[in-house]
Amino acid sequence: MPDVPISRFPVPAIEDVPEDIRARIFQVQEKAGFVPNVFLVLARRPDEFRAFFAYHDALMLKEGGLSKAEREMIVVATSAANQCLYCVVAHGALLRIYDKDPLIADQLAVNHRKADLSPRRRAMLDFAMKVSLHSGEIEDADFARLRDHGFTDEDAWDIAAIAAFFAMSNRLANMASQRPNAEFYLMGRVPRT
Amino acid sequence: MPDVPISRFPVPAIEDVPEDIRARIFQVQEKAGFVPNVFLVLARRPDEFRAFFAYHDALMLKEGGLSKAEREMIVVATSAANQCLYCVVAHGALLRIYDKDPLIADQLAVNHRKADLSPRRRAMLDFAMKVSLHSGEIEDADFARLRDHGFTDEDAWDIAAIAAFFAMSNRLANMASQRPNAEFYLMGRVPRT
Amino acid sequence: MPDVPISRFPVPAIEDVPEDIRARIFQVQEKAGFVPNVFLVLARRPDEFRAFFAYHDALMLKEGGLSKAEREMIVVATSAANQCLYCVVAHGALLRIYDKDPLIADQLAVNHRKADLSPRRRAMLDFAMKVSLHSGEIEDADFARLRDHGFTDEDAWDIAAIAAFFAMSNRLANMASQRPNAEFYLMGRVPRT
Amino acid sequence: MPDVPISRFPVPAIEDVPEDIRARIFQVQEKAGFVPNVFLVLARRPDEFRAFFAYHDALMLKEGGLSKAEREMIVVATSAANQCLYCVVAHGALLRIYDKDPLIADQLAVNHRKADLSPRRRAMLDFAMKVSLHSGEIEDADFARLRDHGFTDEDAWDIAAIAAFFAMSNRLANMASQRPNAEFYLMGRVPRT
Amino acid sequence: MPDVPISRFPVPAIEDVPEDIRARIFQVQEKAGFVPNVFLVLARRPDEFRAFFAYHDALMLKEGGLSKAEREMIVVATSAANQCLYCVVAHGALLRIYDKDPLIADQLAVNHRKADLSPRRRAMLDFAMKVSLHSGEIEDADFARLRDHGFTDEDAWDIAAIAAFFAMSNRLANMASQRPNAEFYLMGRVPRT
Amino acid sequence: MPDVPISRFPVPAIEDVPEDIRARIFQVQEKAGFVPNVFLVLARRPDEFRAFFAYHDALMLKEGGLSKAEREMIVVATSAANQCLYCVVAHGALLRIYDKDPLIADQLAVNHRKADLSPRRRAMLDFAMKVSLHSGEIEDADFARLRDHGFTDEDAWDIAAIAAFFAMSNRLANMASQRPNAEFYLMGRVPRT
User: Fold this and answer.
1) Which of D1, D106, D111 lies at the smallest CB-CB distance from E83?
2) Of B27, C182, D132, E145, which is most buried with the most CB atoms under 10 A?
3) CA pair distance A185, A96, nearest whole angstrom
4) pTM to 2 decimals?
């Protein structure tokens, strides 16, 4: 489907993009083999691009008590609740790769209660879903339940901050009709041999 | 109520905060006369602090088709829908000051349909509320209605991006039980003489 | 904003209003210094006016286990949930005055879970919100929780009756687009010296 | 089922009830052949009883553009939406009698869109349901639609005020677990010969 | 109201209906004294008719731990939640007859929490309502609660399967605007002598 | 994950299953190369098994105005709304195969408004979603919109009946925690060469 635009908004030509942003785009292209559309869609707003990815990296690449796969689980489950096609498909691909599990992303996208999850991960996602959907009702008991499963309060912040960041990202992508790259759909589904 | 903590999480001592963040805190203190609690609550996570305020400034301080008061209107109306006490109270204060209207913030916090708004601003807030609450249902017709009221597509992006950013901010503040400074409640209510 | 009507419906001239209603209006004016718009908006229906205020007085002025401030807390929190601008603003003013707390009304209008409340008052408002929003689900356990916080069953009736009365009042005010007087917004915010 | 109490709260003995309330109870008993439980349940609060029935009579017995059957239609449809057993059953009986239609009450209690209604009555109930369930969203267009069906603005007030009064009544009855008299269930179902 | 059609879709003439379906229709007519409209509405799709009633009979006529009345209770309560007029009225009639209780159907149609139910039947209906309205949230704890009330896991399947079958039936009847026969409304209300 | 059970309920040994059901199971196994778990989960209730698949076949295998791919689209979109993991994954596989499109199922599972759909298919799914989620609000206008897109009223019945049948199927699968076979996740994603 090569003629479907990747966004409701015009996408800048790569040569019109500021140097630092172009560098980041080339870097991700080299690593992934293609440019995820979010980089192209946001490039039209350089300051927002820079802040978005600085925030993303601060949450998704930092050290901490959550594994990379667990962070992507939060993204997939909450993005599905927000009906964000881009984030479910793109981060579902990352989740399959990080967790080395070809099934988990589709499970989380439909119903995290039916996914193959340890009790710890189930508690993590219950908290993330509450932050995403009913943050005004968060209470001490929600933190206590996380502690029962071995999460520290720093982990709780991480879970909530990821859910919150993608609450923003989901709304931007839905507003812009940001289209996931076709490559994402298949990534991590077939074991590499 | 001096003994109510400003966050569910510990707040760093100002001398333990990185230099650039401390400078920003002193700067806002000088301008406002006090330090809004969001700066203290987020300071414990320097990278997230920097990204948060870079994003905030990119959306709220930039040039564009929306006035400063209009941007704050989006914040107040969507933050009320998300039941975020900090954002409603703090940005309500800014809105009263920018719009020179002591009533508008309280009106928007209860029901934007009953506020004293021009048709243009009503359309702006209807769009912002849809981005905040039902972003998966955004359609071409929503953009068309904005255009009918004189908004460009760049304005539409701005409206949506502000609503999206505060969707994140609301969830963080609710999670952290971030307390608004007492000063905000009264700001802009009494005409300065 | 002197030219915005106080109701979607015509308001009778004070000289056309029945004697007893006019007396009540003059009485409140003398006490408050202005005539709250609800008196003018309802005056066009004298029988309804009389029943409305008789009911109001029976619930809000009676002796009982709830303080005046607590009754107004119920009004503010449930009226915010019903998006009733008039009741939030007018009763927010009364709450600030009765509770001698300039912040509590704004807190309750956004999220009663984040307000500065004793556990007793939190339980009172949880019950009031359930009556207002999900009365069909009220069960024995709801009354038991009130008793745990020292409320009698008569107090429970009072809480519920106030929430129920303002469920009506909110709907009337929303239907009539009843506008709060500008005076209410500032009342009780600045300590009298 | 003679041993199921008619309310969660104690019901006063008839001889302990104030004279005027007792008179009203005897009057309704003489007319109906039994005492509807709402009179007994509310009698424990004489001032609230008097205000409740004064308001009820002002809305339900007054002259106006709505027939008695139409007023009861509003009660039945909105009370079903609020899951109030007492009001659906008791006012369903009155509706069957006033409308001389044994089916209409059950239809409205399940789904007013599937009931045998003229377009005028359908518009009346759509407005009443919006007042009952989403009053914060009432707009000029809602009044315009009523006018298209021949309703005056006074009729609109009547429709809304009945929906609002029973929003209160439903919450009181649900809170008190007010039980409908067994007699109501069958009234108006069998043509009198 | 003889001129209101029984369905939004054309109903086949009885002589055009396949032999086996006609036989079933005559059989139910002989037993009930009239032909419930569901048989006529579905007859236009013979294969669907046969599967529908085979499924219905497998769930409603089989042996098992649930009485006939209890099965109809599930139908009435869940169909009311789905606003299906046909199923509430037709199965309400069956429930009154099987349970020899003229009141229970109307109670369940408004609010199963306020109906005259044993704790066992209340637990049964809580489970059925969850299957009907929030099946994605069903957890082990829901089955445990049923066991506490003496239900086997086979009973749990029966409760859920009936709720699920009528989730389908409700949607079909709502789509087709399937009209309940007038006879159902009165059945089982007057004790036969 | 070989040790996760395929259902919350025990699954019968294949040799204990009635002859006709065993035949159907062998038949599907021969065609698909594996036995979809729904056949094993339902086999414990032979009468329900037979009715379920008779109904399924009457809707999904019949001639008519909807293509096989379109029928599966209805299943995937409505099953996602009901959070049914089995149906989304199993019918997503069929949809990819029938539509020869490796992306469409994941798109529909997240947000049918963002999927690559013709206006005709979008209208079909809007109708199916309304039947699935708000069937009590179906009106003549919904059928008119389908006709505008070239659907006959027989097509409308088909769309609604498929949505209704899977409303049942989703609830059964959620109740039983019916697990999709791992094979489904990858089917139709890689072009066969």
Assistant:
1) D111
2) D132
3) 11
4) 0.97
